[in-house]
Queue: 4 jobs
Job 1
Amino acid sequence: RQRWRADGRALRKLPVHVGLVVTEEEPSYADMASLVVWCMAVGISYVSVYDHNGIFKRNNSRLMDEILKQQQELLGLDCSKYTVEFANHDKAGQVLNCQSTLKVLSPEDGKADIVKAAQNFCQLVAQQQRTHSDLDVNMLDNLLSSTNGFPDPDLVLKFGPVDSTLGFLPWHIRLTEIISLPSHLNISYEDFFSALHHYAACEQRWGK
């Protein structure tokens, strides 16, 4: 545990929000739980878990049980102090420590959330609570429910052979660094930390 904290402090920059995107057909709850716990251990504040079939979200209690188990085994933390957040605002029991927040997302939280936000804005205009000229980046951000309270991801770790994020938060990853890894199956901490080290060394030029 002390080594993981030291690793996080040793990086030149640490992402605030990491997206863990699985493009493989058979997601592993144990391996995803390991990735979430490692994110917590190095000091990452926000974590999003996503697979394009929505398997993790549909079976979120199974994922949370695995995270809780590994959290206790690897970190020895009292896991009774925090409530995991889901994109649909359901509460799924007491998991995670007070320094990290997790959201489990599915495709409905991507493009469908943008469509819903647009419909809500049009309704506000129809009710004369807003005008069309009020729509800007900040307004749309506020209307999106899937990442309410979450900053945009600094880093996405994409697992699998598909060269796409398959609908993961299309509005929020305009400036996100995306690192591809072959698979999340049997992933090691060394592979995870190597990706963080790669991110820390990247010079983000913001389109310049």
Job 2
Amino acid sequence: IIEEDAVFIESFFTIPDEDIEFKLHLQSSWLLRFELDHAKMIDRKLTIPYVAGRIAESFKTDLFVIWSEDNSQKLIIHCRVLGGGDKNDHGLGTVEEDIFLRQLEKTMLNSVSLRISSLNYMYL
């Protein structure tokens, strides 16, 4: 639990949603947390819902993605792997899950295209 993210997490879960509630028990206890740079987002004409949506779209039903508002002090995206919930008796994920998340992070950073320009792709 990251205290500075508590406000946007709480506001995300304020309105009940059956689809979200169904996925809660499938979420990994580990998460990827991306903090995006405001100036770069403005310069590239990107919004946080767009970036988070591209991540969610790229990984379809394998990730649960939530994000802060565009006007937040910090632009944050949380990504949790959805799976069978392989957790030990204390509710903690395994070490292998940590390694998997590091590999997933590299994949995201290198392959999630945000915009196509005439010269090249802009990656996350």
Job 3
Amino acid sequence: LEEITPKPVQDTGNILKQGYLEKRCREHSFFGSEWQKRWCVLNRRTFYYYANEKSKQPKGNFSIEHYSARLAFHLRKDSRKKCCFELICPGKRTYEFTAPSPAEAEDWVDQIQFLLKDLTSLTIPYDEEDEEEPYNDVDSSDSVNTTSHNTTLNQDEPNVEMEEDDIYEVLPGEQPNKR
């Protein structure tokens, strides 16, 4: 699990969407409500939820990478069922929310899905840029290996005998390096 440093609402940076949602509690007591009102903040990578909009410490947060968002009318049986949505990730906790209105629930889902697409498209070029040199090294060594391997396979004559300390194969038409 990656650690996300808790931040006050004002310091979460690049806020894409924020507002009050009701979040379903994982464990609620017999007397406590199953749904608790939380100030929720979505930034470019993390979903934070706070007790209210003035809170300094989040009640919780999670990286939204690899999550998917969808409307989830099955979460409630009351008049607010069309206001529900959930965030799902295989192997991780599912987060369930109720928005103030069906339109607001759709907007949260749309924003999260848009962000996830954006994260995916941003990740690919970044990774390629970041990994450019190792890929080039691997490609060039692969092509050398492939060439020497193919040459070895196509040889009609038996393998050239090598000196004991020589670990390199001598290819036809090449002079062995003399030290």
Job 4
Amino acid sequence: LPGYGDSPPTGMVATQQGRVAFLEHVLEELGMQRPVLISPSMSGRFALPFLLARGDRLAGFVPIAPVGTRDYTAGQYQQVQTPTLILYGDRDTGLGHQALQSLLHLPRHHVIVLPDAGHACYLDKPGDFHRALLGFLGQLQ
């Protein structure tokens, strides 16, 4: 993502609208019609504003203890109709639980807590993570 890792910072993603436009551009360039957006940790700064503004473009949403959940109100989350699988590790006692409190306001959500997994639950328990993800994907239309 722009501004993370070794990528140079860019002014385009300095605002929520810019991050929405960035993700929209990526989806268009890849020719993706209704993807499932998977959002671990820092990518929440991009995924959450996209979900709230353009959730109708998504077939599903999978937040994994994303940052930025407190930036939005319960009412904003309640407007989203995108099927959502909330995933986090039970050892992620900080961000996982914090994000969950906000994400529970999404009306079409399901929660899976991976046992003995931390913040990067997909790395700690890849088999359990993939089973949960594939089960969710199999339920989408």
